[in-house]
Amino acid sequence: MGLLNRVGTQSTRLQHHRALIIGGSGGIGRAVSYALASQGASIICHGGHNQDKLDRVVSYIQDHGGKARGLLVPLERATDIIPHLGSLGGVDILVVALGPIAYHSLADTDHDTRQRLVDLNLVLPGLLLSRYLPAMVDAGWGRIVLFGGPHGDTLRGFRTIAAYGAAKTGLASLCKSAAQQTQGENVAVNLIAPGYVDTEYLSVNQRNELTRKSPRGALIPPERVARLVNMLILADEADMNGAVITLDQGLA
Fold this sequence. Notes:
The protein is α/β, with parallel strands linked by helices. The protein has a single domain (4-247), classed as NAD(P)-binding Rossmann-like Domain (Rossmann fold). Helix content is 39%, strand content 16%. It has a seven-stranded parallel sheet, with helices on both faces. α1 (27-37) packs across α7 (222-234) and α4 packs parallel to α5 (162-179).
């Protein structure tokens, strides 16, 4: 059930740090919440709609000796998060794991769907960067991890995820722009572009189809993605900054 039960002892490397995980109650975000908690970070775990699901993640971390609190905020627009940020206190680790997708051709993507995809995949991370990056720079330490889409390291088109792909391409540029504003401090902003990850959000048909398309014939467990997040956050120095890192088994 995540990484906390896979480590023999709890690490304290992040015990003085506070991590905000957007989309932290499910999928990749849940694995990241567990992974960072296992390193001693105090977790603010955001969930969107399911209080019981969020409570289970928070309780699991607490039951395994970690520190966590939940933040249930349904997000339809990026600005929905703003009223809740003031009560969170300082944050020096930010992971934005929320990233809704919709499968439509460009012509079949209606305005509301396009607006929501751009808002939550691009505007929301930008809003959070604007809020937390300057304080991290002032403090001299911070880690931010964003998530792109498939083939996030290249400029390419998509037949069925045009709006999502456009937003994620913009997010990669935003990541590099943010990295250029870290002013030489020990602050890093990086983006992971995963391939096909095995999460509860996949239907049976989607899981079968993506397994077939995966280069290794198997989906990527979210814990493997979380280990990469841990590596980026635990790095002693911010030498890797503004990187777009593919984790996709060599997806064609």
